[in-house]
Design brief:
heterodimer; A: 250 residues; mainly alpha; 0% strand; B: 69 residues; rod-shaped
Chain lengths: 250, 69
């Protein structure tokens, strides 16, 4: 058991192995996630009744909430990868951290833009500086900050340390985002889905929403794996296996 | 299906432009996000392939200087 575990960790540190396994995983996870997304969105757009107060604009929930949920979860992935690369100097953790940042930034961007579009017909304004929206904007800057910081260093080891520290420090923002709608009076409505107690959302609206959240998690994983594969290639262009791979695909 | 016609679906009782704009932007960003790694990977492999071809062209000379590399 122990030996099997160590051999797994050993393989995890092997770039060609991770490159191949991630590729195999993508082959079925990507079509599955796209299918879940199309089903969830079509369900939410076409087959649910409008919200009794907001009307049809509420249908933005099926992209807004999944994007925001996964953007937050993605930050944990990035900070955890940062911690592992900082403590154990594991190269693959560094690659994972670097690969997460653009995915998280894109999802945060989606959450902010769809939120603004939703706000216009619902609150009468595109933007308010309330706690939830402002802390989400800070999340976007943290993701963009990690991307920019990576580019700012010539020394790769220094860049990876600085990015890991930034992503760890930024985790203080995460509970603030979660709790912002409870701590501060806000235009933003509180969470409708609760793990403990009754959700305040009708099941007919909840199921397509949950499916869409699952789809966004799947797509997040796909983009992360894809970015890791590309990053592995970029760092290994001098090695025999990449040269054989390039030669074979000619 | 909730909507009676395609027009009703597109208009969404006045909320159509908001809903469709939000979905359009989201799908566009997701498509870019998911296609970017593949494009980068193919570019990198193309570059390595070009290098291999250049090396093959000067192969005999380099082999003398750097055996086994």
């Amino acid at each position: 058991m122990r030996a099997a575990m160590w051999s797994f960790f050993h393989k995890l540190g092997s770039p060609p192995w991770l490159y191949r396994i991630a590729g195999n995983l993508l082959n079925w996870l990507l079509p599955l996630s796209v299918l879940a997304l199309v089903t969830g969105l079509a369900w939410g757009l076409l087959f649910t009744a409008p919200d009794f107060r907001q009307g049809n604009s509420y249908r933005i929930i099926y992209i807004h909430v999944p994007a925001a949920v996964v953007a937050l979860a993605g930050y944990y992935v990035m900070a955890l990868a940062g911690a592992i690369s900082l403590i154990w100097k594991m190269k693959m953790a560094d690659i994972a951290m670097k690969a997460t940042a653009p995915v998280g930034a894109a999802l945060t961007f989606i959450a902010l833009v769809t939120g603004a579009i939703w706000g216009k017909p619902t609150w009468g304004t595109w933007w308010v500086w309330d706690a939830r929206i402002t802390s989400m904007l800070i999340l976007l800057f943290l993701y963009l900050g990690v991307i920019a910081l990576y580019e700012a260093y010539d020394n790769k080891a220094a860049a990876s340390r600085a990015c890991a520290v930034l992503s760890l420090v930024g985790t203080v923002n995460i509970p603030i985002i979660y709790k912002s709608v409870d701590w501060w009076y806000s235009l933003h409505q509180p969470a409708s889905i609760k793990f403990t107690g009754d959700s305040s959302i009708d099941p007919s609206m909840l199921y397509p929403l949950l499916l869409s959240i699952v789809a966004f998690y799947g797509l997040f994983t796909c983009a992360l794996l894809g970015n890791m594969r590309a990053e592995i290639l970029a760092r290994e262009t001098r090695t025999g296996w990449v040269r054989r791979l390039a030669g074979g695909e000619a | 299906m909730y909507f009676d016609s395609l027009e009703a679906l597109l208009a969404m009782e006045g909320h159509g432009p908001y809903v469709w704009a939000a979905y359009g932007i989201t799908l566009l960003v997701l498509a870019l996000l998911l296609s970017a790694p593949g494009r980068r990977r193919r570019r990198l492999l193309r570059e390595v392939r070009g290098e291999l071809r250049r090396e093959a062209a000067h192969g005999s000379k380099e082999a003398v200087h750097a055996p086994g590399s």
